[in-house]
Amino acid sequence: MSGFFNIWWRQRAQNRLDAATYNALKNIIGTMSQDSIVTPSVEDGRSDLNEIVCDQVKSATADYGIEITDVKIKRFDLPSENEEAVYQRMISDRNQIAEKYRAEGSSEAAKMKNDVDKQVNIIVSDAKAQAEEVVAEGERQYMQLLAETFNTAEKENFYIFMRSLETLKASLSGEQKTIILGANSELAKILQGLE
After folding, report:
1. Is residue 29 within 8 Å of 79, Cβ to Cβ?
2. Biggest distance spanned by C-alpha atoms of the chain
3. pTM of the complete model
4. Which of 52, 59, 122, 182 is deepest in the core (most CB within 10 A)?
């Protein structure tokens, strides 16, 4: 009979320990956020959790003469009715975090694009201004050369003759080979002089 009572008392003590541990764990986890339970730093969080549960189980079993030295949590199992809701919440939380990162990335990309566009506009404006200065300087030098080249009446007449020939050549370059000229035009005078 003594063996029966040993097993019976041992089973009863185990049941009380299980109930005290379950209640302590349920109360503590109920106050924690999901992220603090399921995080990369689980080891730090679990050691703190183990200590808190151990302290509560010690105080709950002190009246029975049971001394608790340590409590270790091996794993967390969700009740099957809560599993899907927890997974959906985890997915939702991760989606919110991902959306936040996407929004921050889009904002940074827009800032960078605006900065680059601004720099491009400045560079293009500077390049256009420099190009206009170069063209203006080239035209100034061209006009100066023309003035120096055709500073006599004879050189001026030669210039007019050359321009007239260029105009004639351009006029006769297509299908059209007929030209109507006024009798007093420089080109007519040149052509009449060639006869």
Report:
1. no
2. 152
3. 0.39
4. 52
- Number of neighbours of residue 160 by Cβ within 10 angstroms: 15
Q: Are 68 and 54 in contact (CB under 8 A)?
A: yes
Give CA separation, 187 vs 1, 72, 157, 193, in Å: 143, 111, 12, 10
Query: What DSSP string describes 74-89?
Result: ------HHHHHHHHHH
**What tokens does 10 get?**
């041992």
For 9, the token pair is: 């008392």
Question: Rounded distance, CA 162 to CA 98, Å?
Answer: 75
- Report whether 50 contacts 73 (CB < 8 A): yes
Structural tokens at position 147: 């003035």
Give every CB contact of residue 185 below 8 A, 6+ residues apart in sequence.
none
Report the distance separating Cα 172 and Cα 191, nearest Å. 14
The torsion defined by the Cα of 90, 94, 99 and 105, in degrees rounded to 10, comes to 170
Residues 165/190, Cβ–Cβ less than 8 Å: yes
42-67 exposure pattern, b = at least 16 Cβ within 10 A, e = fewer: eeebbeebeeebbebbbebbeeeeee
